[in-house]
Design brief:
Blueprint: H1 2-26, E1 30-31, E2 41-45, E3 49-50, E4 58-60, E5 66-68, E6 74-78, E7 85-97, E8 107-114, E9 126-132, E10 139-142, E11 148-149, E12 152-153, E13 159-162, E14 176-183, E15 186-191, E16 194-199, E17 208-213, E18 216-227
Antiparallel strand pairs: 1-18, 2-3, 2-6, 4-5, 5-18, 6-17, 7-14, 7-18, 8-9, 8-17, 9-10, 10-13, 11-12, 14-15, 15-16
């Protein structure tokens, strides 16, 4: 019996390094926002164009948080493209709202798979993980992008929506974590640890990432990615 126990302890100890290696791989994310400036990103503001933001629609706060004012529609976009990745970010709504969305739910979004040759405009071709009050996690296919949801391929169009299956957004004023896992056309949207939506066989498989300013003040932090 003692020899069995010694053998069991030895096997357990030998297995521990493998467990630690596996857990470290799960945390193998790298930040894509440095908390100081927009190095690696560029801005596009409707009416002003690329890297021309006189109204400071996008600003880095002293605490390393991105503020998108919502005053103008636009976005911050990565200069790099990605294929097969897991992106995670946190967001929190601010208080300010702007026309033409003064009476509409607060709105923003995380777009991905934006082709490198896409024209900068509101909004470029891609797939969106919706960030909107009450609708966080919806899929939006923009500028003729398509995806299969519940066994049916979405129709090409300017803006085509697939509603989330669950609601996991926290109350106004609290930080929310949004994740998108994208691998070989399989797209999963996770809100505060809950899988709320997914699609398969997306028509675009790689591209840049962007976060939106869309009529409402919003804050972003801890933007990080793991390439798969």
């Amino acid at each position: 019996m003692k020899s069995f126990r010694r053998s069991l302890i030895l096997v357990t100890l030998l297995s521990l390094p493998c467990l630690f290696i596996q857990s470290s791989k799960k945390d193998d994310f790298v930040p894509i926002f440095n908390g100081k400036d927009f190095k690696g990103w560029y801005s596009f503001v409707d009416g002003y164009g690329k890297n021309n933001d006189p109204l400071k629609v996008f600003k880095v706060e002293p605490n390393g948080i991105i503020r998108a004012s919502g005053e103008k529609f636009g976005y911050l976009c990565t200069e790099k493209e990605y294929k097969n990745f897991h992106i995670s970010l946190e967001f929190k709504w601010g208080e300010k709202k702007w026309a033409p969305r003064l009476t509409a739910p607060r709105d923003s979004g995380l777009l991905y798979d934006i082709p490198m040759d896409s024209t900068d405009k509101v909004w470029p071709c891609g797939i969106e993980c919706q960030i909107q009050e009450g609708d966080v996690g919806d899929l939006w296919m923009i500028a003729n992008a398509t995806i299969v949801v519940d066994g049916v391929r979405s129709k090409p169009g300017d803006f085509v929506r697939a509603i989330k299956k669950k609601d996991a957004e926290k109350p106004h004023g609290e930080w929310n974590t949004v994740e998108a896992i994208v691998k070989d056309g399989h797209c999963q949207h996770i809100v505060n640890g809950v899988l709320v939506n997914e699609g398969f066989d997306a028509s675009i498989l790689r591209g840049r990432l962007l976060i939106q300013s869309e009529g409402a003040e919003i804050f972003f932090r801890n933007i990080k990615i793991k390439e798969l």
